[in-house]
């Protein structure tokens, strides 16, 4: 008797366990992975994405979730390192998550996107602007931010039509994002018959740019386009100011960051940058801005609202097709337009936005920015 | 002077500045190697810790206000040297001494582990982001040439780096060549076992070399921190690698070699960046190392040594 009860108790236990597992599966939580740098030198950008995504998720949950499902954001740290990004992508797939907002750095997004495409995971990046990510013709990969090439051609157009400098140098950090942009800017200038006097790379993570600055001074340049991120440009600006190099600097949205002013101080004043439109100043986003500020977070980062929009697109799609199947969602996203925090979003066949979301801004030493004249 | 020679002069000034700091860090590698024949890969992290400590002290003192800048820097220097030395001493006690006498590879792996530990420890306790300090020392001592063509500038900060390095190196050379402890250091470098037999506490001497190396790295940490104004927990790796290269270039185990190696490496980097695309800077610097090792395996000033293993 005792023996048979023992056996029975095991069956009971197994049944209970099975029920519990089925129960959790039935609790209808939609998990969205946030992939991006939570540590490392560009962790600020990961924060911007987190702020945007979590604000969007909280808003959804406060309004009853998506079709009754609660939404949960799960953070994965790729440290903006391509190797770690691949590991993170595999982990997301293993964890059974099929909706990803991220990654941030183009060099991380690209290897990760291969995995998502193969495993049928929907990925929307709010920050990666390298054209090569969508050039492979993937079906599952989207962005809520314009392309490098758009930003680059916008910069070269601004240089040619508004700034009109006499000698231009194009510097980049030899990384996919920076060099890609710098190449587009150089090609844009060359196509218009303006040949940059210098086109050179620096090493990301380097601290000493005195040799480069002396070279720029010798070449007598009055305009420098820098393709890269803020840590290197901050040091270049600071050391240029110390060495008395007087030239107009311009960069992509990767330099738009309050840390740039912390590193370079007053030297930041007047630096130009192409950046996503300041969506936090859009009156339609006033309530969202208020909600983010109420949590003590900063809504002004360039990736906050693109990240917000990425969640909105996912939520709207799930509502419309009443399914969380990532492949079906991707098909729907390509075929329809969405009303989001970054305006009306429509995609071309590659998963790129049909409209540019960038503007030329002037940066200030207090960390703020205003649209350039 | 012509524009070309002014430009060359400027690049040499830049190279000597960065080279001086390489030399300061390289001393730590070379002294430790000279005595116990191991490469202390955690040394770059000691430099990073020195940088952090000096940033914390400077920010703290400036926030309290009413201190003269030279005093602030002096206090920061002392505190950074003290704390970095403590780290240097502790690292040796914890990670290397128990392994001394075992296979060299084991100590090397322990050093790499220590390096990763320290890096992550600072990243977790201080945050992994860039920490910036506003420029404290600005302006230039010397301006040559004219603004229209090319102007050579030697900034106060660069001069400070030169002077501090020169003073430190002179003091170190005097200490090693004149003092009793210095003589004991030289004896240990020559033959550790024999020195021990002659009644010198070699453990103390080994600790001392770690402390001296760490203190010099902290000086470099303060100087470079002020010069660039930005630090993060990962700066130790590249700085350590460059300083190690400098030490090998000059002849590892030799103190004048480390000084010379640092300066040569710094000037080579600056000149490469000056006359070639600057992305080739590291290619040429490390290419130089390979070339020297091919033709002169002991480095420029290194003595050919009987294999100790």
UniProtKB/TrEMBL annotation, chain A:
<dbReference type="Pfam" id="PF13458">
    <property type="entry name" value="Peripla_BP_6"/>
</dbReference>
<feature type="signal peptide">
    <location>
        <begin position="1"/>
        <end position="27"/>
    </location>
</feature>
<dbReference type="InterPro" id="IPR028081">
    <property type="entry name" value="Leu-bd"/>
</dbReference>
<dbReference type="InterPro" id="IPR028082">
    <property type="entry name" value="Peripla_BP_I"/>
</dbReference>
<keyword id="KW-0813">Transport</keyword>
<keyword id="KW-0029">Amino-acid transport</keyword>
<protein>
    <submittedName>
        <fullName>Branched chain amino acid ABC transporter substrate-binding protein</fullName>
    </submittedName>
</protein>
<dbReference type="InterPro" id="IPR000709">
    <property type="entry name" value="Leu_Ile_Val-bd"/>
</dbReference>
<feature type="domain" description="Leucine-binding protein">
    <location>
        <begin position="29"/>
        <end position="367"/>
    </location>
</feature>
<keyword id="KW-0732">Signal</keyword>
<comment type="similarity">
    <text>Belongs to the leucine-binding protein family.</text>
</comment>
UniProtKB/TrEMBL annotation, chain B:
<keyword id="KW-0997">Cell inner membrane</keyword>
<keyword id="KW-0813">Transport</keyword>
<dbReference type="Pfam" id="PF02653">
    <property type="entry name" value="BPD_transp_2"/>
</dbReference>
<dbReference type="InterPro" id="IPR052157">
    <property type="entry name" value="BCAA_transport_permease"/>
</dbReference>
<protein>
    <submittedName>
        <fullName>Branched-chain amino acid ABC transporter permease</fullName>
    </submittedName>
</protein>
<comment type="similarity">
    <text>Belongs to the binding-protein-dependent transport system permease family. LivHM subfamily.</text>
</comment>
<feature type="transmembrane region" description="Helical">
    <location>
        <begin position="46"/>
        <end position="65"/>
    </location>
</feature>
<keyword id="KW-0029">Amino-acid transport</keyword>
<keyword id="KW-1003">Cell membrane</keyword>
<dbReference type="InterPro" id="IPR001851">
    <property type="entry name" value="ABC_transp_permease"/>
</dbReference>
<feature type="transmembrane region" description="Helical">
    <location>
        <begin position="205"/>
        <end position="228"/>
    </location>
</feature>
<feature type="transmembrane region" description="Helical">
    <location>
        <begin position="283"/>
        <end position="302"/>
    </location>
</feature>
<keyword id="KW-0812">Transmembrane</keyword>
<keyword id="KW-1133">Transmembrane helix</keyword>
<feature type="transmembrane region" description="Helical">
    <location>
        <begin position="71"/>
        <end position="91"/>
    </location>
</feature>
<feature type="transmembrane region" description="Helical">
    <location>
        <begin position="12"/>
        <end position="34"/>
    </location>
</feature>
<keyword id="KW-0472">Membrane</keyword>
<feature type="transmembrane region" description="Helical">
    <location>
        <begin position="156"/>
        <end position="176"/>
    </location>
</feature>
<feature type="transmembrane region" description="Helical">
    <location>
        <begin position="103"/>
        <end position="122"/>
    </location>
</feature>
């Amino acid at each position: 008797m005792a023996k048979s009860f023992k056996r029975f108790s095991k069956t009971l236990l197994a049944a209970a366990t099975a029920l519990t597992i089925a129960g959790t599966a039935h609790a209808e939580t939609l998990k969205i992975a946030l992939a991006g740098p939570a540590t490392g030198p560009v962790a600020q950008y990961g924060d911007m994405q987190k702020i945007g995504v979590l604000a969007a998720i909280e808003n959804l949950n406060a309004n009853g979730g998506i079709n009754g499902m609660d939404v949960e954001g799960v953070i994965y740290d790729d440290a903006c390192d391509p190797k770690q990004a691949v590991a993170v992508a595999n982990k997301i797939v293993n964890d059974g998550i099929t909706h990803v907002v991220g990654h941030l750095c183009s060099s991380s997004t690209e290897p990760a996107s291969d995995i998502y495409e193969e495993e049928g995971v929907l990925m929307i990046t709010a920050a990666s602007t390298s054209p090569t990510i969508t050039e492979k013709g993937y079906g599952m990969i989207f962005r809520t931010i314009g392309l490098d090439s758009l930003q680059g051609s916008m910069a070269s157009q601004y240089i040619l039509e508004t700034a009109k400098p006499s000698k231009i140098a194009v510097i980049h950090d030899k990384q996919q994002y920076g060099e890609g942009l710098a190449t587009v800017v150089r090609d844009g200038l060359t196509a218009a018959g303006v040949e940059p006097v210098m086109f050179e790379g620096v090493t990301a993570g380097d601290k000493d740019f005195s040799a480069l600055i002396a070279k720029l001074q010798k070449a007598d340049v009055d305009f420098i386009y820098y393709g890269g991120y803020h840590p290197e440009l901050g040091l270049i600006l600071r050391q240029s100011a110390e060495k008395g190099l007087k030239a107009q600097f311009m960069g992509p949205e990767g330099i738009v960051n309050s840390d740039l002013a912390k590193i370079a101080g007053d030297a930041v004043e007047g630096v130009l940058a192409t950046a996503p439109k300041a969506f936090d100043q859009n009156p339609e986003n006033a309530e969202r801005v208020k909600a983010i500020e109420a949590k003590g977070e900063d809504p002004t980062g360039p990736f906050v609202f693109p990240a917000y929009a990425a969640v909105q697109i996912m939520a709207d799609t799930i509502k419309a097709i009443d399914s969380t199947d990532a492949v079906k969602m991707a098909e729907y996203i390509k075929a329809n337009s969405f009303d989001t925090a970054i305006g009306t979003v429509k995609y071309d066949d590659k998963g790129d936005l049909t409209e540019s979301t960038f503007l030329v801004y002037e940066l200030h030493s207090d960390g703020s920015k205003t649209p350039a004249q | 002077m012509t524009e070309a020679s002014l430009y060359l002069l400027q690049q040499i000034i830049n190279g000597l500045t960065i080279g001086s700091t390489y030399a300061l860090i390289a001393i730590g590698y070379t002294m430790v190697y000279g005595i116990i024949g191991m490469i202390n890969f955690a040394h770059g992290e000691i430099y990073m810790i020195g940088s952090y400590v000096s940033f914390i002290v400077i920010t703290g003192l400036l926030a309290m206000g009413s201190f003269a800048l030279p005093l602030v820097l002096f206090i920061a220097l002392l505190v950074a040297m003290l704390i970095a030395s403590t780290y240097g001493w502790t690292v040796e006690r914890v990670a290397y001494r128990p392994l001394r006498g075992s296979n060299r590879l084991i100590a090397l792996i322990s050093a790499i582990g220590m390096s990763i530990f320290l890096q992550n420890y600072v990243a977790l306790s201080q945050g992994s982001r860039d920490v910036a300090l506003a420029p404290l020392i600005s302006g230039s001592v010397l301006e040559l040439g004219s603004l229209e063509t090319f102007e050579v500038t030697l900034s106060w900060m660069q001069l400070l780096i030169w002077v501090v390095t020169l003073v430190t190196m002179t003091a170190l050379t005097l200490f090693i060549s004149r003092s009793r402890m210095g003589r004991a250091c030289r004896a240990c470098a020559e033959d550790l076992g024999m020195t021990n037999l002659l009644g010198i506490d070699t453990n103390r001497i080994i600790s001392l070399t770690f402390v001296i190396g760490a203190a010099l790295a902290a000086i470099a940490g303060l100087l470079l921190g002020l010069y660039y104004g930005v630090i993060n927990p990962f700066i130790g790796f590249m700085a350590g690698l460059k300083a190690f290269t400098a030490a090998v270039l000059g002849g590892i185990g030799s103190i004048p070699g480390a000084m010379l190696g640092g300066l040569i490496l710094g000037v080579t980097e600056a000149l490469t960046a000056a006359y070639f695309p600057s992305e080739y800077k590291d290619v040429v610097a490390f290419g130089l190392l390979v070339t020297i090792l091919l033709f002169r395996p002991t480095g420029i000033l290194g003595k050919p040594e009987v294999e100790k293993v």
